[in-house]
Amino acid sequence: MTDTPQPSIEPGEAANTARRRRSIAIGIVLAVLVATFYAVTIFKMGPAILDRPL
Amino acid sequence: MVSVGSTDQVLADEARLGDYIALLKPRVMSLVVFTAAVGMAMAPANQHPFLALIALACIAVGAGASGALNMWYDADIDAVMSRTANRPVPRGRIKPHDALAFGVTLSAFSVAFLGLVANWLAAGLLAFTIFFYVVIYTMWLKRFTPQNIVIGGAAGAFPPMVGWAAMTGQVGLDAWIMFAIIFMWTPPHFWALALYKTGDYAAAGIPMLPNVAGSRVTRTHILVYSVLLAIVSLAPLATGLAGWLYGAVAVGMGIPMIVLAAKLSRQPEGAPMKRTARRLFVLSLFYLFAVFGALLADRVLTLNIGIL
B22 with B159, same domain? Predict the structure, then answer.
């Protein structure tokens, strides 16, 4: 059995742009989530959460 | 590896960011955010404004998630209706399993986060709303009965109740009144749309009332529900949820709604009747914004300024 080269699909400019924008959007959403989780923790539990003994 | 060259023709159809936003049905989401925000504002409880804002965002994301799941399941009928043919799934820009994964992920996330930020009653109600819209309405009622949007309308009526529950941890009579206003509003709104989009729904095989029972019966139903809507909209006055400012707006919107529905019910078939149906559809949109806006204005003026 010989290895037959498989045809590939090279993404063009439009596809790359769409992927890049989606990746940026996912990054922004994740950053907002991190900030939100942090803020919610502080607001729910109060600043004292930072003073607890480890 | 053998390249077959650039295939923008193939991959230009790849999902754009806007396609995922379209999956969330932003216009429906804006209505949900608005009514849920009013539900939160009317609730007799104080939450930290930031936590209330995050709870509202959870409700919005939950609504968007149910929109994505609706588009996943309804891709076949969306493809044959002019109003929905351009949606990302029927257009092939987002694959059905991607829409499903997107919707399920956002549903789970929004419910869990609302439970942690607010309380688990609100989270449970949000989960039930998503379930009701996706399973009861989309998968079952929509293709099965001409009463689809009457019963399914409950899904759209829950957001102010979820908002109320997020603030208070319980569901009171006033939350049910806001639910009832949207529940009664849904049939005249969607049947007016169905009257001038009859061909679309027939082509898709959806048993909307005009296709099944005919235009005249539908218009009589619209009139009945418009009268019920106007009456139910006065309930906040009876319970003290709102005062005279709200009452003036409710009466001021209720009368033209009934007058236009009565005119629609008397008109013969034809283009003028369809134009009236379209006007009623637009008026019903204004109705909901005006009535819920008046609830909010009434509360703000009463609490913060003491004018009323």
Answer: yes
